[in-house]
Amino acid sequence: MTSLTVSGRVAQVLSSYISDVFGVMGNGNVYFLDAAEKEGLRFTAVRHEGAAIAAADAYYRTSGRLAAGTTTYGPGYTNALTALAEAVQAKIPVVLVTGDAPSSGARPWDVDQAAIAAGLGAATFTVTREAAGAITQEAVEYALARRTAVVIAVPYDLAALEAAEEELPVPPPAAAAVADDVDGGLGRAAEVLAGAKRPLILAGRGAHLAGAGPELRELADRLGALTAGTALALNLLQGEGYLGVAGGFGTDTAAGLMNEADVVLVAGASLSPFTMRFGHLISPDATVIQIDTAMEPTHPRVDLFVGADVKAAAGRLLRLLDGATPSEAGASKAWRAEALNRLAEGPCHHPGSTETPDGRLDPRALATALDAVLPERRTVVQDGGHFMGWAPMYWRIPRPQDLVMVGTAYQAIGLGLASAVGAARAVDAGNTLVLTAGDGGFLMGLSDLESLVGTASSAVVVIYNDAAYGAEIHQYGSQGLTEKPMLIPEVDFSGIARAIGAESAIIRTLEDLSALQDWIDAGAKGTFVADCRITSSVRAQWLTEWMKAKETVAS
């Protein structure tokens, strides 16, 4: 290796894993950013340190490729903590390269950054002059293997010093998948599935990341099973017998059919309370089989757990069923046919109303109209908030990677704009990025509207603007608590967007969407902000379920 500084060695090793870095320059990372440019890494500047990790996180969710965020030490680092916690909770591999206190000791303005990261569940790897490359490689491999966020800390007094020469170890091979001669519980799983009269396959993000869609789809057809997906595996198993999203974003008809299943194969899904409809999705009499890379079952409802790569395990199940007709194939296929009839005849999502108590738009009717206007090739990024169900419920989103839901793991809002910047760098050519946000979360991340305008080649921002923190209005305002802290003055986001360089319009009626249509017809270049004035009188179905579940626990 040629002579490099400690920062240069970190950048050199990272360049073999990543192509993109997001962040804000400061004293603690200026030498790293200089080295990153020399290594050919693409740097996207954001305007708040919290956006550095959020953008890198969304880049991975959209593309499946690792990215890095970078901040300075101290306040730059602490500004990034919410996004770091979200990545940890959501199991997203991402790297934060940050400055840190000098190796000689902390200064009055330094904080114990490693202890803070540990409190969030993120490991810190502090580089040294002797092993800057090896420690960087160890950190990246740790993030990839464990699907988590890591911090690479560069002590301030070492950043520009010459690094020692190193012979880097060869990265360890990926963990072995389930081999043909290893059962691991799959033999028993195959027996249970073969005897099912009403089988259901429920896929989660783990199945998508493993590329297990084709095997699970074939397995469903072999068994005559119905299929469903979590919101993060939307349409992965689309085909005959597909019921849509499991949980609060699905229809009541689909949920009723899932509840009738006698055997449920859960593939790469953690069975969160939202997916489980707070305990009501799966019948208490059903046998639940879970396949996951986790070390143990992720939910007490699991009866048979197989720790394995989902794709390899699904392929193994297919081979175990080769040459054998499932004993209840006739019954299961009859149930599938009946289910499809009931699904077609059952009620769909509420279409919304043309009249509301305050005269503002019904978000359901708005979502339906937007689906017809937005470009068919779209990648949707969602901030957290009351509005977050409208896109997965009402919009055509063909692939799991085309829906990026941020903030849900950590129950945060305000990460949407930052995430849109990362997704904009990762979207497939020809796709339009669509960000959906509430007015509260949008104001939190407003500084990075400028970052999005400067980054995206084609982006639409949909703001569900109810002049309030909508989730709190529905949860607590409905109980009689004062709404004053829950209200937000009516903000002219359209005017702000134009000042920053975007095209925009205030959407007060569905006819006002013609401005967005004209922009799309003209080529959909740049960024368009739709400031949609919606009513706070419509409560999302998923929030109603959550509130009922809380009431049940409280009683």
Question: Please, could you describe this protein's structure?
Answer:
Helix content is 37%, strand content 17%. By secondary structure, it is an alpha/beta fold. The strands form 3 sheets. It has a 6-stranded parallel β-sheet with strand order 2-1-3-4-6-5, sandwiched between helices. A 6-stranded parallel β-sheet has the order 9-8-7-10-11-12, with helices on both faces. It has a 6-stranded parallel β-sheet with strand order 14-13-15-16-18-17, with helices on both faces. Helix 7 (132-146) links the parallel strand 5 (123-126) and strand 6 (149-155). Helix 3 (50-63) runs parallel beside helix 5 (81-90) and helix 8 (186-194) crosses helix 12 (310-320). The longest helix is centred in the middle third of the chain and has 17 residues, at 329-345. Mean pLDDT is 93; it is low at 176-182.
How would you summarize this macromolecular structure in one to three sentences?
The protein has 555 residues and is an alpha/beta fold.
Topology:
Blueprint: H1 6-14, E1 20-23, H2 30-38, E2 42-45, H3 50-63, E3 68-71, H4 75-79, H5 81-90, E4 94-100, H6 113-120, E5 123-126, H7 132-146, E6 149-155, H8 186-194, E7 199-203, H9 205-209, H10 213-223, E8 226-229, E9 242-245, H11 252-259, E10 263-267, E11 287-292, E12 304-307, H12 310-320, H13 329-345, H14 363-373, E13 378-382, H15 390-394, E14 403-405, H16 416-426, E15 432-438, H17 439-444, H18 449-455, E16 458-465, H19 470-475, H20 493-500, E17 503-507, H21 514-521, E18 526-533, H22 541-554
Parallel strand pairs: 1-2, 1-3, 3-4, 4-6, 5-6, 7-8, 7-10, 8-9, 10-11, 11-12, 13-14, 13-15, 15-16, 16-18, 17-18
Helix pairs in contact: 1-2, 1-7, 3-5, 3-16, 8-12, 10-12, 16-18
